[in-house]
Amino acid sequence: MTEVIRHEYEVSSEGAVRHWEIPYSRLTDATPTATLPAEVTSLLPGTQLTGTILTVDADTSVAVIDFTCSMVYYHEVRNVLTYSGAAENTWGAINIGDIVYYDNSATMPAGVYLSTSPLDNLGVANTLFGFVVPANDVDMALYPLGGITASTQECAIMQVGAGR
Question: What is the domain count for the chain?
Answer without folding.
Answer: 2
